[in-house]
Amino acid sequence: MQKLRLKLILFRLRAKLKDWWDWSWAHFVSGLMALVSHLPAKAGIGFFAWFARTVGPLLPRHKIALENLHKAYPDKDPQWIRKTALEMWENMGRLFAEYVFLDKIFDFNPNDEKPGLVEVDGIDIFVRLRDEKKPHIFFTAHTGNFELLPICAATFDLNVTALFRPPNNPYIAKRVLKARRTAMGHLVPSKAGAAWALAGKLAEGEDVGMLVDQKFRRGIKGTFFGRPVRTNPLLIKLARQYDCDVYPARSIRLPGGRYRLELYERFDLPKDNDGNIDEVKAAQKLNDIVETWVREYPGQWMWFHKRWDD
Asked: Which residues are in coiled coils (predicted)?
């Protein structure tokens, strides 16, 4: 009985310490962002890029990133691995800071041919989808500043409800969600009830978007960089149920603090001999597309994410 009480006390103590740490870290980061918000956008984003590049390698997640990079690129030397990991941290720092400056960095106007910080490939597709007046599903990955994609869709009068995974720190998650609501329309946290929420939007004829490069314990088995993974079947199930067209989209960071947003033509889900969607082949095709994107810009993907099964 005494051992059980001791375990219970230790469990509660660890929970309180974790909560204290989450609260302290969230307030430190929020205070830092509040200070940075008074800087010009370029300087503020640059500061967070430096901060993440400096602090990131000191965090436990850095080890995960290095291990993932070694396994994904066994032919690359350690110097390339370390360089790519640092680029990833810099990308993460920029992404975090850009929440503060979204209204300043997103300067794309489909009616203005003057070049700005954001350029868009696939404008004709956006226009066509807007005029179709039926629901669509967009998918992307954690590359570049993927947060700009729903904002871009909104400039073409496409109201996209995005599925997202909140940060593990609940205090940071609350602040991030508040920042995203200001410019990104509807958001659905990836937890119980998320599938019903997205299904409801599609049933109403609205568009939804989701990230497809996250681990899902009960997902469809496949491979990513030749390693076993499990992929969330939600996109496939929703596309089948509502007979929706599916479109890939991604964000790419360009030199000089610029961005390119790309929308591709319809993604055809593989079918079996009976004409039904083949879930295994469809999930693998999603993985293959994301892998192609990551291989093109490896420093712009979240390598510290535990994507693989092994």
From this structure: none
Identify the DSSP state of 258. E
Residue 258: strand pairing partners: 254
How high is the pLDDT of residue 217?
A: 84
pLDDT at 103: 76
pLDDT score of 216: 85
Q: Tell me what pLDDT residue 179 has.
A: 56
User: Do residues 142 and 211 touch, judged by C-beta distance below 8 A?
Assistant: yes
Residue 76: DSSP 8-state: S
Count of C-beta atoms within a 10 Å radius of residue 236: 25
pLDDT, mean of each 10-residue run, the chain (310 residues): 64 70 71 76 90 94 96 96 97 88 84 86 94 92 91 88 67 60 54 73 89 89 95 93 94 94 94 88 96 97 89
Neighbours of 21 (CB within 10 A): 11
Enumerate residues 6+ apart whose C-beta is below 8 A from 301. Answer: 88, 141, 142, 143, 213, 293, 294
Per-position DSSP letters for 131-172, written without gaps between them? HH-S-EEEEE-SBS-TTHHHHHHHHTT--EEEEEPPPSSHHH
Contact, 248 vs 267, CB < 8 A? yes
Beta pairing, strands 118-121 & 258-263: parallel
- Cβ atoms 250, 293 nearer than 8 A: yes
What are the start-end ranges of the H helices in the chain? 2-36, 41-55, 60-72, 78-98, 102-105, 123-132, 148-155, 170-181, 194-203, 234-242, 279-296
